[in-house]
Specification:
Length: 85
């Protein structure tokens, strides 16, 4: 049985979303909403990739994942900095 890379990565992104926004006492609702819609878009890309493996969809999925990871990292750093002030 093969492990579905895209399903696994989407699960990691969802867990990171919960970790990031779950620990923030206050967050910008616009950023949170955009991140939610981006994760939904990744789910749609995952389905497209499963149906037909197009390079553009795979590339977009990976780039989006990397961008979200950077956003999560930045938000966590900002939250920790505010907490220490």
């Amino acid at each position: 049985m093969t492990v579905d890379f895209f399903k696994k990565e989407l699960g990691r992104i969802q867990a990171e979303f919960n970790r990031t926004f779950g620990t923030m006492p206050l967050c910008n609702p616009k950023i949170r909403t955009r991140v939610v819609f981006t994760i939904l878009r990744m789910g749609i890309l995952k389905q497209k990739i499963q149906k037909r493996k197009r390079k553009e969809d795979i590339s977009t999925f990976v780039k989006t994942k990397d961008n979200l990871n950077r956003i999560f990292s930045t938000l966590i750093k900002e939250s920790e900095r505010r907490h220490h002030e």
